[in-house]
Design brief:
Elements: H1 2-16, E1 31-36, H2 45-54, E2 64-72, E3 75-83, H3 93-96, E4 102-104, E5 111-113, H4 123-127, E6 134-136, E7 141-143, H5 149-153, H6 159-163, E8 169-173, H7 174-178, E9 210-213
Parallel strand pairs: 1-9
Antiparallel strand pairs: 1-8, 2-3, 4-5, 6-7
């Protein structure tokens, strides 16, 4: 009898519940990253600079340099794909956060996390198709790349960009980066960036703010 009453209460609660609909923030200007997959030498200076800036212990990586190798002798190839949070136009992490800790900045589209509101449920970590949110076990919170917002607000660039010795990693207005109109050392004259490369999650899922200068073997057909 008690179980029937409990079930009835649950049914009534479900009827009362309002479904919350997330309306993506449309920023005044969307900042994004660009990476030259071919000219990157894989030194991982950007990774180290990021870990140093954010005081990360061994394990969590806000920025990851991934090596892609393939082919058969004598036709072999290798290139790098450099990824962090993509500050998506429709971030999958944001609406999954039960406390509202994740937010998107109106002025530049940067997606950030308020660690004081994070409860470490890791729902954002599961939702992100790019593996950007990183769990920090010592603090029981999830954190990620916020494009070094303090540096951005001071008129400077993120630590990862400044640490890149080959100058193949940069930021800028993503629409101009995609159009090849933003001046950057990550893009040579005549090169046109793309929005996705092979083995990357479908950009239509979250509309990531990232541009690549792809290797010939990494281009999507």
């Amino acid at each position: 009898m008690a179980e029937e009453k409990d079930l009835d209460k649950i049914k009534q609660a479900v009827k009362r519940r309002r479904k919350a609909v997330y309306t993506p923030v449309v920023p005044e200007m969307q900042l994004g990253f660009i990476h030259h997959n071919v000219d990157c030498i894989g030194c991982r200076a950007c990774e180290i600079a990021c870990k140093d800036k954010n005081g990360l212990a061994a394990g969590p990586r806000f920025r990851r340099v991934m090596y892609v190798e393939g082919g058969k002798f004598p036709e072999v190839f290798a290139y790098k794909v450099n990824m962090s949070c993509n500050h998506c136009a429709e971030p999958a992490c944001l609406p999954t956060c039960p406390t509202g800790a994740i937010f998107k900045r109106k002025k530049d589209g940067i997606v950030d996390i308020d660690s004081t509101l994070c409860i470490g449920c890791r729902k954002c970590e599961a939702a992100c198709p790019y593996g950007a949110p990183q769990f920090i076990p010592e603090e029981n919170v999830v954190s990620k790349c916020n494009m070094c917002v303090d540096e951005i607000d001071a008129g400077r660039k993120p630590y990862c960009v400044m640490a890149c010795m080959m100058r193949v990693l940069d930021i800028g207005p993503i629409d101009k980066l995609w159009a090849g109109e933003h001046p950057t050392t990550a893009l040579a004259p005549g090169e046109m960036p793309v929005k996705a490369v092979k083995n990357l999650a479908d950009p239509e899922l979250t509309k990531p703010s990232i541009a690549f200068v792809p290797h010939s073997k990494g281009k999507l057909e």
